[in-house]
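batch_manifest entry 22 of 60
target: DUF362 domain-containing protein
source organism: Candidatus Avoscillospira stercoripullorum
requested by: lab member K.T.
priority: normal
notes from requester: please return tokens only, no post-processing; we will run our own comparison against the previous entry in this batch. if the run fails, retry once and flag.
--- input ---
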Amino acid sequence: KCVGCGRCIGVCPKDAVEAAQDETFENLNGKIAEYAKAVVDGRPNFHINIVNQVSPNCDCHAENDAAIVPDVGMFASFDPVAIDVACADAVNRQPVNPMSLIAERAGMPDRFIAAHPTTDWRTGPAHAEEIGLGTRDYELITVK
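--- output ---
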């Protein structure tokens, strides 16, 4: 009996198993935001993201494909929501790697939705902002 763990999706060599098309991903994104808030709430925190070798699948997958965009760089912020949105926006401004899984969907403006059309990553930052984890607004300062 299926218990909804999703392990079959990651290990199927023929991509024959797909996730359910329901609110599961939105709920997961919301819970991730809530757990992150529980960790940082009332505590000093600083975040560093390195946007390098952005693969189409989660790093937990045993298999993966070529990076979907060129390497972007390093980001830092005291706001965990702003940094994630800034990183996603930066990825979405990059050209698609013509050798990647999403090359045939290069015209789509959102690289993450191109990789996974049935999910919407934006529900996570939206919920995070709603619960006071941070803001989706950011100021990008480039350092060379």
